[in-house]
């Protein structure tokens, strides 16, 4: 942690004796403290979840299909145009 980074919120977790034992062993094998081990593993897992939930990958073929659809001329949808031309109750 750099000098500029300050420690913030504290997390309290309850662990079974078995869970605590495994974490202490893993931390020891990584030559770190249980707290640092938990923080590192939690951050790695959190980054993976954020990455998985905010990005998607497509093949070149899939991208070509998407690009073709996006490049199609816009369709006029009369019912949607009529609906959007009306004022809503909350606009008044």
Describe what this molecule looks like in 3D.
With 92 residues, this protein is mostly helical. It has a domain at 13-58. It is 58% helix and 0% strand. The longest helix has 21 residues, at 34-54. It is elongated and about 65 Å long.
The helix/strand series, from N terminus to C terminus, equals HHHH
Rg for CA atoms: 26 Å
- Main β-sheet: number of strands, strand sense, barrel status? none
Proportion of helical residues: 55-70%
How far apart, in Å, are the first and last alpha carbons? 53 Å
Work out the strand percent: under 5%
Number of strands: 0
Mean pLDDT: 90
Quaternary structure: single chain
**What is the helix tally?**
4
Which ranges are low-confidence, i.e. pLDDT below 50, for 5 or more consecutive residues? Answer: none
Structural class category = mainly alpha
Approximate shape: elongated
Q: Which descriptors would you attach to this protein?
A:
mainly alpha
List the SSEs and their pairings.
Blueprint (H helix, E strand, L loop, with lengths): L16 H13 L4 H21 L5 H11 L7 H8 L7
Short description:
With 92 residues, the protein is mainly alpha-helical.
């Amino acid at each position: 942690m750099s000098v500029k980074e300050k420690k913030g919120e504290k997390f309290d977790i309850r662990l079974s004796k078995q869970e605590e034992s495994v974490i202490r062993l893993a931390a020891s094998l990584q030559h770190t403290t249980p707290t640092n081990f938990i923080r590192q593993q939690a951050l790695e897992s959190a980054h993976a979840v954020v990455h998985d939930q905010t990005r998607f990958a497509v093949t070149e073929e899939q991208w070509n299909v998407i690009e073709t659809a996006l490049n199609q001329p816009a369709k006029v949808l009369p019912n949607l145009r009529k609906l959007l031309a009306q004022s809503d109750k909350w606009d008044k």
